[in-house]
Amino acid sequence: TVARAIGLPEEKVFKTLVTVGHSKGIYVFVIPVAAELDLKKGAKAVKEKSIEMLPSKDITPVTGYIKGGCSPVGMKKAYPTVLDESCRTLDRMVVSAGKVGLQVELTPADLIELTRGETASLTKE
Known about the structure:
By secondary structure, the protein is of the alpha/beta class. The protein has helices spanning about 1-5, 40-45, 60-65, 110-115; strands at about 15-20, 25-30, 50-55, 80-85, 95-100, 100-105, 120.
């Protein structure tokens, strides 16, 4: 829906997902909007036994953002962030700018630098 609304191909538009690990650590994943996070791949990427989605009620207290407007940049704390490796094939990508309906376009390298993130294979085939 977001990709259509802003007139960009789905491959360029990414969503931000927040998870909690077996160790209770918080992890941020940035994946294409049409894809689904593979929790096993995500756990492997952050070296956790397992991860699960952060409950909706905890999104604002943990990130400072509301559900649907979560940006990988500017959260309350700098959480470990992993971007789907598919971003490396793009010249520019779009992520939430911190409010529902507001996006920012930037290079994958810039987002990796801003979040001190890394890339990995994260989505279900």
